[in-house]
């Protein structure tokens, strides 16, 4: 198997469409999924580099694995469902801390998926605008999460990481809305991220392999009679 040069990780609540986005991008189709167990990855050749793209499980029971998958990541794609404000809130409350193990110069993208389910106008609630009749909207619903909410989260991430807005890509550039079902903006998302991770991969390669712990060197601490480690 080819050795990956860099790593991109998808994080987000269960059911937001992480696996479907990856299927759409890598296999060019939308297919039925089952909720991910643990994690899985694809390798994508990008120029001279092999980028591993990790699909993680959003289910709470696998939460502990998240920071392991993020270790050394050059980019993290934080995914939510545009029809669930809770899924955006979860990114801040549950997933952001998992990225502490990512590369120090990790790129963050915030992705609102399932835009195909929303009303085409996709406008936020506006008191001055008359409500559209439900009948005229067919089965589509008004988007629950506004682009501004995602941009606000991006800015919170910069604060959390103690990064200056001047030194990172603009929030508007890093917040995406996609549909894994129709393919809307899926290529654009992944390709924008890949372009941005190339300089990080180049730096990581120049610095050599990351520090790893060799478990064959591990010597268990001696136990004292009381059962404590000496
Ligand atoms: N309409 C619509 N449905 C989608 C879209 N993306 C995913 N889905 C559906 O949403 C459900 C969940 O999709 P998954 O890709 O399995 O979600 P996930 O984020 O990988 O979920 P976990 O693996 O549990 O973390 C499936 O029924 C998908 O068919 C989309 O863009 N539009
Ligand atoms: Mg999945």
Please render the helix and strand layout as text:
Elements lengths: L5 E7 L5 H10 L11 E8 L2 E8 L9 H5 L4 E7 L3 H11 L11 E7 L33 H14 L10 H4 E3 L8 H22 L23
Parallel strand pairs: 1-3, 1-4, 4-5, 5-6
Antiparallel strand pairs: 2-3
The structure holds guanosine-5'-triphosphate and magnesium ion.
The site of guanosine-5'-triphosphate has 21 residues, from helix 1.
Which residue ranges are poorly predicted, with pLDDT under 50 across at least 5 consecutive positions?
122-137, 212-230
Please summarize the sheet with the most strands: 6 strands, mixed
Helix and strand run: EHEEHEHEHHEH
Strand composition percent: 15-25%
Biggest β-sheet: strands ordered side by side in the sheet: 2-3-1-4-5-6
Class inferred from helices and paired strands: alpha/beta
What integer is the average pLDDT?
A: 86
User: Quick one: CATH class?
Assistant: Alpha Beta
CATH superfamily: P-loop containing nucleotide triphosphate hydrolases
Helix content: 25-40%
Oligomer: single chain
Distance between the termini: 43 Å
DSSP summary: helix tally: 6
Strand runs, count: 6
The CATH architecture is 3-Layer(aba) Sandwich
Q: What molecules are bound to this protein?
A: guanosine-5'-triphosphate, magnesium ion
**How large is the radius of gyration?**
20 Å
Query: Per the principal axes of the C-alpha atoms, what is the gross shape?
Result: globular
Give the total of domains: 1
Might you state the CATH topology name?
Rossmann fold
Subcellular location: Cytoplasmic vesicle membrane; Cytoplasmic vesicle, Phagosome membrane; Golgi apparatus
Organism: Athene cunicularia
Protein name: Ras-related protein Rab-20
EC number: 3.6.5.2
């Amino acid at each position: 198997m080819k050795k990956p040069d860099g790593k991109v990780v998808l994080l987000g609540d269960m059911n937001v469409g992480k696996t479907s986005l990856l299927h759409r991008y890598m296999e060019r189709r939308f297919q039925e999924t089952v909720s991910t167990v643990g994690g899985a990855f694809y390798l994508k050749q990008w120029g001279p580099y092999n980028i591993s793209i990790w699909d993680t499980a959003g289910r709470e029971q696998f939460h502990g694995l998240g920071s392991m998958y993020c270790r050394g990541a050059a980019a993290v794609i934080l995914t939510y469902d545009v029809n669930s404000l809770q899924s955006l809130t979860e990114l801040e409350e549950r997933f952001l801390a998992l990225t502490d193990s990512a590369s120090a110069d990790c790129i963050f993208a915030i992705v609102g998926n399932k835009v195909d389910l929303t009303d085409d106008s996709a406008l936020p609630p506006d008191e001055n605008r008359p409500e559209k009749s439900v009948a005229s909207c067919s089965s589509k619903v008004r988007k629950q999460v506004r682009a501004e909410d995602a941009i606000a989260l991006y800015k919170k991430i910069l604060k959390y990481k103690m990064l200056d807005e001047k030194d990172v890509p603009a929030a508007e550039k890093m917040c995406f809305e996609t549909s894994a079902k129709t393919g809307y903006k899926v290529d654009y998302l992944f390709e924008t991220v890949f372009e941005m991770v190339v300089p990080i991969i180049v730096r990581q390669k120049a610095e050599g392999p990351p520090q790893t712990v060799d478990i064959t060197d591990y010597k268990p601490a001696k136990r004292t009679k009381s059962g404590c480690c000496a």
